[in-house]
Amino acid sequence: MPLDVAAGADVLTEALPASVQAKLTFAVRTADKPFVYTYDPPEGQPWTNTVYEDAVVTVENVRPIADSLSLDVEGVAVVRQPTAVRDLWDEAQILALGHPETAELVKQATGASRVVVFDHTLRNSAVEAGQRLGVRGRAQPPASRAHADQTVASGPKRVREIMGDQAEALLKRRARSSTSGGRSAIRRGPGRWRSATRATFAPADLVATDLIFRNRTGEIYGVAHNPGQRWLYVPDLGPDEAILIKCWDSDPGVARFAPHTASTIRRPRPARRRARASSSAPSPSSTEQKAARAHASAASSSSAARVESRPSRSA
Questions:
Q1: Cβ contacts of residue 142 below 8 Å, gap of 6+?
Q2: pTM higher than 0.85, yes or no?
């Protein structure tokens, strides 16, 4: 089934430059393996030992090339899919409507025979981490450090944790984990875009980092700065658009990860005119990608729009 690719739909294109400068936050390699607690750590233990540094990088506007992006090459895709979810802070709507929509979106984009949605995160730049919005779900701020959500070790481990007895049979075939983000009940600040960014990277740029939960320890990649990286962003993501980001792929012959981060990008001048463009791209054949499973994070209402570029195939 063809999947509608959002190349520049409903975007104020006249005001969008080909590239902008943005300050991104990167991990610094140290002698000790980095760790981050996702909850208040034990007494005397820091919440993280990770060292970070900021760097100003050139970030390219992805809209002109959105219809050529591939989850197997760049590890990212910008797609159009209307949603029936009317309140992105309503957990009941997210579970009843958002999860099935996301599963269908990932299935169309990957050719997977089965998709399991196992998590979602609400993000909003206006709140502190863990703050509750009224009686609704707990929101998290945008993920403002360059990272990839899983690693070569934690990808298959997560499949085993979620799928139990079915995991080994699934891992004999191709398995993937992806995240879908970008539904915008977004309040964009004047003169700014909230976006996220992703880059071409080398294996040496990836810094394995323990992510410590109360009941388990996961592993993500921090991303070290490399001047050779290429970063892209998606401006003005519409309410009927979503960004798919590759978190992990068991196939070493394709893009296995898509590092990304949230950032603030200032709009250089006021928009004056609207332009609309879209194209269709066929989803990958199910014979090439059958039996894949994907993780998809339900629509985030953060001001962060996920953005991608070209990952190394050997990561």
A1: 123, 125, 194, 196, 262, 302, 303, 304
A2: no
